[in-house]
Design a protein that fits this description.
eight-stranded parallel β-sheet, mainly beta, 192 residues, 47% strand
Length: 192
Amino acid sequence: SIGTMIRDCWVHDCIYSGISYLGNDTHVSVENCHCFSNGYHGIRGDADVRMDIVGNRCYSNSLSGIYIDAGQNCVITGNYTLGNSSNGIAVVGAGVSNTITGNHSLSDVIGMTINSKYSTVTGNTINDPDQTGMVIGAVGAVADYTVVSSNTIYRAGHVGISLNGVCLIIAENTILDPSYGHTNTYYGIEWG
C-alpha cells in the first residue's frame, strides 16, 4: 500500500526542489504534478524507498526534472520533462530494480541518466537533448543487468546512448539524425 501520495499539485519557483521526499515511508507516489522553475529539481527522492512518479510535468528546473537517489523498485512512467538544466530524469545512487518507461524528454541537457542495477528502461522518447540522450551507467557508476529497449532518441547533441556496465541488454532502440543542428556529435551508441 502507498504510505504517502502527492497528486495534482502545481509547485514552482522554490529555492530548492519543488517536491522533495526524504522520509521513512516504504512506498510514495507523486502523480500528475507540475513542477517548474525550481532552484534544484522538480521532483526529488532521496531514500531507500519505492516511489511511483507518474504523469508529471517537470520543466525549466535548475538541475533535473526528476531526480531519484537510491530508489528501490521505483516506477517512473508517463512523465514529461522540458528544458531542465541537467537531466530530464536521473536515477542514481545505489538503486536497484527500477522501471523507467513511457516518458518524454524535450530539450533537457541530458534526457536521462540511469545508474541503477537490474532496471528496465523502455519505451521512452527523447528529443533534442543538448548533450546526450541517455546515459546508462555514468562514469564511476554502473547500471549492470539493465535492459534498455524500444527507446527513441532524436537529434542528440553529442551521443545518443552512452553505456557503462556489464550484462546490459540493448535492443530495438532508434537513434535518429544525431547530428542535426549540432557540430559535436560523436556516436549514436557509445560503450565503455
